[in-house]
Write a structure and sequence with these properties.
The structure holds three protein chains of three kinds. By secondary structure, chain A is α/β, with parallel strands linked by helices. Chain A is built from twelve helices and ten strands. The radius of gyration of chain A is 20 Å and the shape is globular. Chain B has one domain: Ribosomal Protein S5, domain 2, CATH 3.30.230. In chain B, helix 1 packs across helix 2. The termini of chain B are close together. By secondary structure, chain C is of the alpha/beta class. In chain C, strands 1-11-9-6-2-3-4-5-26-27 form a ten-stranded mixed β-sheet. In chain C, strands 15-14-13-12-16-19-23-24-25 form a nine-stranded mixed β-sheet, with helices on both faces. Chain C has a three-stranded mixed β-sheet with strand order 8-7-10, with no helix packed on it. Chain C has two domains: about 200 residues, 3-Layer(aba) Sandwich (Glutaconate Coenzyme A-transferase), CATH 3.40.1080; about 230 residues, Glutaconate Coenzyme A-transferase (3-Layer(aba) Sandwich). Chain C is globular. Classes of the chains: A alpha/beta, B alpha+beta, C alpha/beta. Chains in contact: A-B, A-C, B-C.
Chain lengths: ~280, ~80, ~500
């Protein structure tokens, strides 16, 4: 359960050093796009050494490995041996890549006696978007992340402020995730100086049902949390509902002029769960 | 022939290795007055772990933490090995 | 003899006892200089030097309101050089990197004693490496005013750079081609120096709104330029984007909120550093959200505070120094943007000084130790890189003193077992905020009580130090030389620490 995931380049010691104090819900250590081809070994080694010796870590650790069909994937996956990885972020995800990755992971998990590795799939091309439902159904997959930059490049279209070109891919991701009960995560907003633009973009994504967003700079986290956290009012409402359930043992009742039944009660409990997780209580 | 790893960015270090008749470690660090011994130890231990000797190691350090120094030394060694 | 913060001080000096000790003593005042109604107009520095018979061993003073854009200090150094004067005692309120003409004079023994509140750059390096033949005495802003009014620091001639002077000899900093705003630091010099010379590049018929009263002025010298007011901008007036700074700012504003410090009628002061400004920006948000109006903000005033004054968030600004040109402009036109002298700001013997009225202050630190003593004077090698300025004054005066810093900068731990130099005693420092937790001075039982239910992680300084060492490793101890090159004088005149020459092995 996240509201925000921050990408940081794995080859950057200053960022690694401070990874544990960023206010995001999870940190994605990036071995892929943020690292030049001739620095992949440096990034990998630094990340491995950091994960094995640092005295403190972010609360959730993710790693974006290089493409499953790249020369780097096998060495990248060895980072799982540190036992510190919570999720792997799979770039350019599609069914074929997932199949191969699944195989590689099973071998590594056997070899290093690891638990089943969870995945977040980055859908950044038309194939990935088309296969969103199938990918979401895969047992390892816990979230889908939309990669609008590469996607729009492939379609040869421009990104716009209004974001109409993203309505379809965002919705594909949202519905695929919703039906499988996994997390939908929106594409990053690339202008780090434009806070209002970030806010607007977050609202557009939220309106379609997205539950979280990736950040590419720590200064974006606050705004993302403002949009994707349950509001004070909603939390108060949820507290009210749950309190009636717990104290009066009712399962069907009126609250604040509305009918409250089982699905609504579940929603209220989920809200309180989130609020607790995000320190909002 | 020299092999390098790392950078001169803040909190990083640039490690340069070349083959030599013996092992020497040279450190040029902005925090040498406080951490020279620790930096030396990190380099020496990494060389031992990788079973490497007969290299001249030059580390130009901009306040890198211990794990960064070890990682950069290790990668410089690996790059050297790939070429040999 | 060990003083009140455990530092070894030579027997010849009165050692620091405690930050409250001044209450046991009476204010000492020498006579203000005799007032008169006319002043001389000089055509050059030589005339002034001749007229006032500036000889070997004289004490000359300056202020630093033009900061790194000042020319007067360097010009007077040229005159000292030319006239081959020796053993001079200079008392500039600060020494900036630009004041390079002091260096050859220090090395040749033409300047042998220095009193100042802050120094940085090549002059500081020169003194730290032992080239000053006499001693460096460092003061706080309030303490320097006390030293002058009590006769502890006797000034023969005060050279006061003044952006606008009129034909009577009244002076103003608010207007002129090199306007620098308030002239708070030179008021004590004006009233107690034996002779006062205003140096200006802008002579007018009549000055209506003046801070410098002609009755104390003995001479006026018109030069082509007193410097460049653009040199005032120190370059640190932007809010930090650095994630560590942002976290610290966020935790600090949370702290301020939980301590109930942001309420109607409150007063505050902060440093001008990037992280402090990020805190101010959060405070501004909180004030707007809850409709809170503060009584005043003081300092070192920057655009950030000017904007808040204009938005009606504060009733007044008390300004001892303008840190940027927006502050200069505001001072000239806003009647709620008021000047304060260094004495009114932080002299311990001033009744109801601005420092004493502050609800909370936010300060930086180069080092802080397990007893909350703060160093803003020297770096880890012992090089002088600053000085108290108003730090020790407002740390004592404010109800709650909060010091901010990351746990380390480029691997160098900020927390030490014992600081290299004590600038501000730990008894006046209440809270330390780092990116990985806060520590509260154990003697502030009231604050600990208030924050019991807080979600902010509270640690002891020892725990924060352990966290730091887990990341950086334990550093070696820096060697200290035995040679004393100066002293850190606390605001009440006692000596709180000594300054030592940097050990030879660290000098390149």
């Amino acid at each position: 359960m996240f509201r925000s995931l921050l990408f940081i380049p794995a080859n950057n010691p200053s960022m690694l050093q401070n990874a544990d104090i960023f206010l995001c819900d999870g940190v994605i250590f990036d071995l892929e796009d943020a690292v030049g081809l001739d620095e992949k070994d440096n990034a990998r080694d630094l990340l491995n050494t950091y994960l094995t010796t640092s005295p403190s870590f972010p609360k959730t650790i993710l790693v974006r490995v290089n493409g499953v069909f790249s020369d780097f994937i096998d060495e990248d996956l060895i980072v799982l041996n540190t036992g510190k990885i919570d999720y792997i972020v799979v770039p350019k995800a599609d069914i074929d890549a997932l199949f191969i990755l699944d195989y590689k992971l099973r071998r590594l998990e056997d070899k290093y006696h690891l638990n089943s590795t969870k995945l977040i799939c980055l859908l950044e091309d038309s194939t990935g978007i088309n296969q969103a439902n199938e990918i979401a159904m895969h047992p390892r997959v816990e979230g889908l992340l939309l990669g609008a930059e590469d996607l729009t490049k492939e379609l040869e279209i421009e990104r716009t402020t209004e974001g109409q070109e993203l309505i379809f891919p965002r919705s594909k991701v949202v519905y695929a995730c919703q039906s499988q009960g996994i997390l939908s995560i929106d594409t990053p907003y690339t202008d780090i100086n434009d806070v209002e633009g970030l806010s607007f973009d977050c609202q557009q994504a939220k309106k379609l049902g997205m539950k979280a967003k990736t950040a590419i700079h720590p200064s974006q986290i606050d705004r993302i949390h403002q949009v994707f956290s349950p509001t004070k009012e909603v939390i108060e409402w949820a507290k009210g509902v749950v309190s009636i359930v717990e104290n009066e043992h009712k399962t069907l009742f009126q609250f604040q002029g509305k009918m409250i039944d089982k699905p609504v009660i579940e929603r209220a409990m989920k809200i309180l769960e989130k609020a607790k997780l995000f320190d909002l209580l | 022939m020299m092999w390098k790893a790392g950078s001169l960015e803040s909190n990083d270090c640039l490690v340069t290795i070349k083959k030599s008749s013996q092992t020497t470690i040279t450190i040029d660090s902005i925090v040498g007055h406080l951490f020279y011994d620790q930096i030396y130890q990190a380099i020496e231990e990494t060389l031992q772990e990788e079973n490497v000797d007969q290299v001249d190691v030059l580390v130009r350090d901009k306040g890198a933490l211990d794990y960064t120094i070890r990682a950069r030394v290790r990668v410089a060694i690996k790059r050297m090995r790939k070429d040999v | 003899m060990k003083n009140g913060v455990g530092r070894e001080i030579p027997e010849t000096f009165k050692g620091f006892v405690s930050s409250n000790d001044y209450r046991q003593h009476q204010r000492r005042l020498i006579k203000k200089k005799a007032t008169h109604s006319s002043c001389l107009f000089f055509k050059d520095y030589d005339e002034a030097f001749d007229q006032f018979q500036i000889k070997n061993g004289a004490t000359l003073s300056f202020h630093h309101h033009l900061r790194n854009g000042d020319r007067v200090v360097n010009d007077v150094c040229d005159v000292i050089q030319k006239r081959q004067l020796k053993n001079l005692h200079v008392a500039p309120t600060s020494i900036f990197p630009n004041y390079t003409k002091m260096i050859p004079l220090i090395q040749s023994g033409q300047i042998t004693e220095i009193d100042t509140n802050y120094l940085n750059g090549p002059v500081a390096v020169c003194i730290s490496e032992g080239h000053l033949k006499g001693r460096l005495m460092m003061h706080t802003h309030g303490g320097r005013a006390r030293a002058i009014e009590s006769g502890d620091l006797v000034i023969d001639v005060a050279f006061i750079a003044c952006p606008t002077v009129d034909k009577k000899g009244n002076g103003s900093g608010a207007v002129g081609p090199n306007a620098c705003g308030t002239l708070g630091y030179c008021i004590a010099d004006l009233q107690y120096a034996k002779k006062v010379v205003l140096v200006t590049d802008h002579l007018v018929e009549q000055c209506d709104d003046y801070q410098i009263d002609h009755q104390y002025v003995d001479g006026v010298l018109v030069v082509d330029s007193i410097g460049d007011s653009k040199g005032i901008v120190s370059g640190t007036t932007k809010i930090t984007k650095d994630p560590v700074g942002l976290k610290i700012a966020r935790d600090t504003s949370k702290l301020l909120y939980e301590l109930g410090l942001i309420k109607d009628g409150f007063s505050m002061q902060t440093g001008a550093g990037k992280t402090s400004l990020a805190v101010v920006s959060q405070v501004e948000k909180m004030m707007k959200e809850h409709g809170i109006k503060g009584r005043f903000a003081s300092g070192g005033i920057t655009k950030t505070y000017v904007d808040m004054l204009e938005a009606g968030l504060f009733e007044k600004l008390y300004d001892v120094q303008c840190f940027d040109l927006d502050a200069v402009k505001s001072f000239a036109r806003n009647k709620h943007h008021l000047a304060m002298s260094a004495s009114e700001y932080g002299n311990p013997f001033e009744t109801n000084s601005v420092a004493d009225q502050l609800d909370f202050v936010i300060l930086g630190a180069t080092e802080i130790d397990l007893n909350f003593n703060v160093n803003v004077t020297t770096d880890s090698l012992g090089y002088i890189i600053g000085g108290s300025g108003g730090h020790a004054d407002i740390a004592h005066g404010a109800n709650v003193t909060i010091v901010l810093s990351p746990l380390m900068k480029s691997r160098i731990p900020i927390i030490k077992e014992v600081v290299t130099t004590v600038t501000t005693p730990g008894e006046d420092v209440d809270i330390f905020v780092s990116e990985r937790g806060i520590a509260i001075n154990p003697k502030r039982v009231d604050l600990l009580e208030r924050l019991k239910e807080s979600s902010i992680e509270i640690y002891t300084m020892d725990e924060l130090l352990a966290k730091t060492y887990a990341l950086t490793g334990v550093p070696s101890t820096i060697k200290q030389s035995d040679e004393i090159i100066g002293y850190v004088q606390y605001r009440d005149g006692s000596i709180i620490d000594v300054l030592r020459k940097v050990a030879d092995e660290y000098i390149k």
